[in-house]
Amino acid sequence: MRARRLLPCLLVLLAAAPAQAARPPASASDPRWETPANWPFDPPGKLRRGVDGVPDWWDDGSPCAVGCRPRGAHLGWPLKPFHERHALRAGLNELRPSSFHHGIDIQAEDHVKVYAMQSGSAHIVESSGAEERVQVGSYVYWHVDLRVREGQRVRAFRTVLGTTKSGFGHLHLSELSGSRYLNPLRPHGRVLFPWRDSAAPVLARPRVLSDGRVLVEAFDPQSFQIRTRYNTPVLGLAALAYRVLDRDGHKLTGLRWALRGTQNYDWSVHSAIYASDTRAPDFDCWFQPNCKPRWDYVLAGGLAPSVRELGLPSGRYVLKAYGWDWAGNASTIEERFKMGGGARKRAIARPAQLSKPRASDKG
Fold first, then answer.
1. pLDDT tens digits, residue range 127-156?
2. How far apart are alpha carbons 79 and 70 in whole angstroms?
3. pTM of this structure
4. Cα–Cα distance for residue pair 337/318, rounded to 1 Å
5. CA distances from 45 to 48, 163, 216, 222 (A)
6. How far apart, in whole angstroms, are the C-alpha atoms of residue 225 and residue 48?
7. Which of 293, 100, 295 is nearest to 216 (CA)?
8. How far apart are CA 270 and CA 252, in angstroms?
9. How far apart are CA 320 and CA 243, in angstroms?
């Protein structure tokens, strides 16, 4: 009799559990561990989750790094169901052929209806072709077969803007503040709700090169995943930094930021963020079940100074790399290296360049 009373409660709990949430074991050395098919590489044993005593990656003081929620924007998603989670296919600043990605990609089937999240007048930015898109308020909806006309009054979650294009398998969403692209997932400014991610980034062992540059492969797995034509992929990082420690673990430098995705970067700095062997997913990649990019970052010697520019005397040191995802989850990994003799270069500040809207996003 008691079992019959408990059965409805158990069914409710099972129905409420996220069907596609993925939580890997604490260590890749666990015998139960199997690397997911869409991960670019196995996580190294030195990888550690979490960071202590470092600022939030978005706390850089730049305009609208946090907050700045558009007036009149409604919480939800531009695809049905409006108030349930959706999976992401790409994030801000991922590498594209001629630009950084200008927003986020929401994984979707083809021919799905697209709605605005903010009421206002439709502005047709591109009326045909692969980059067909419309802006309503602060948001731009890309790769859409449009059903609205220029100047048409649009009601949030009521007016159908169009449908996702055949073969694209996603909706690209950009957010603008004047002429600047913002991070649509920023704290206290995000209207995409509900959204959460509990999986921390995965960093490979940093490679310290003879010229003082440091490269590191990394990616961001997502805890919420679905299957459309393809499985939900890993994303690029939101932020990346390093510091140098002595052999006993004492800090010798502050954080040096190699990537900080509070704003959209200008194309002129792409080679300072991504190494030359980075492989971004192309259009054909999304016709495979598991599209695996290769995100290889310039951790030192790009936007952040090389280790030779830090003024360190000859000796042995530890480089500690930090990686963050868009939800604020973080991972760290350490790598020992040696500084030889010879003249040392002085560190040079490298201001990040922010981008303005471009004619093509290719995202």
1. 999 999 999 999 999 999 999 999 999 999
2. 19
3. 0.87
4. 6
5. 8, 44, 15, 20
6. 23
7. 295
8. 28
9. 5
Residue-wise pLDDT tens digits, 43-57: 999 999 999 889 999
Q: What share of the chain is helix, strand, coil (3-state, %, to 5)?
A: 10, 30, 60
- Dist CA 271 CA 294 (whole Å): 15
Joined tokens for residue 353: 């360049």
Of 184, 173, 347, nearest in space to 257 by CA: 347
Give the C-alpha separation, 15 to 7, whole Å: 12
Closest CA to 189 of 78, 58, 329, 87: 58
Instruction: Give residue 357's pLDDT band: very low, low, confident or very high (50, 70, 90).
Output: low
d(CA 101, CA 95): 6
Contacts of 26 (CB under 8 A, 6+ apart): 49
Q: Which helix (H) or strand (E) holds 164?
A: strand 160-164
Distance of CA 357 to the CA centre of its chain: 19
Instruction: Name the 3-class secondary structure at 82.
Output: coil
| CB-based contact 240:331 (threshold 8 Å) | no
CB 85 within 8 A of CB 224: yes
Name the band, by pLDDT with cuts 50, 70 and 90, for residue 34.
Answer: confident
